[in-house]
Amino acid sequence: MSMDSLTISAEVRNLDLVNDFVLSRLENCGCSDNKTLMQIRLAVEEIFVNIASYAYDPAIGPAEVRCEVLKDPLRVVIQFLDSGRPFDPLAKEDPDMSEDAMMSRVGGLGIFLVKETMDDVSYEYKDGKNILTVLKNL
Q1: Whole-model pTM above 0.85?
Q2: Beta strands in 14-73 (DSSP E)
Q3: Rounded-to-integer distance, Cα 62 and Cα 12, Å
Q4: In what order do the strands lie in the sheet with 120-126?
């Protein structure tokens, strides 16, 4: 399969378009496992909302989402690209998941959950772009 691409304005209101783009690629390849689809949907949502909220703040810029379904073994690779300020979300230390810390926590779990539910997550800054790549075995 080839890598499909969607370039849109990095605004939270476009989240449904991004989810539809990714999920339609998965449906086309026959992926119907609800747990896997939900994990991918949550990862896409977390990453795209972070780009929309922080990459160009206070301005608005473009985001590109690339999606490729690979076979043998069946897996999906999703890349998120933006030209906003350089930011590596993976550089942050994983949060303290103890009960005491969880009771007082406000936010900060999104990227941790992405790392926990995807099979691989990587980041690079190249040619003036943030590139966050997630891989999920299907």
Answers
A1: yes
A2: 62-70
A3: 12
A4: 4-9, 62-70, 75-82, 129-137, 120-126
How far is Cα 7 from Cα 94, in angstroms, rounded to an integer? 30
Q: Which domain holds residue 70?
A: 4-137
| CATH number of residue 43's parent domain | 3.30.565.10
Query: Does the bond joining 73 to the residue before it have cis omega, within 30 degrees of 0?
Result: yes
3-state secondary structure 65-92: EEEEEECCCCEEEEEEEECCCCCCCCCC
Q: Are 48 and 11 in contact (CB under 8 A)?
A: no
Question: What amino acid is encoded at 108 in this protein?
Answer: G
DSSP, res 93: P
In the chain, what is the straight-line distance between the N-terminal and C-terminal CA atoms, in Å?
15
Looking at the 3D structure of the chain, how many domains does it have?
Answer: 1
Tell which residue, 83, 78, 114, 62, has the closest CA to residue 4.
Answer: 78
Distance CA 32, CA 7 (A): 26
pLDDT tens digits along 86-129? 999 888 766 555 555 445 544 567 888 999 999 999 999 999 99
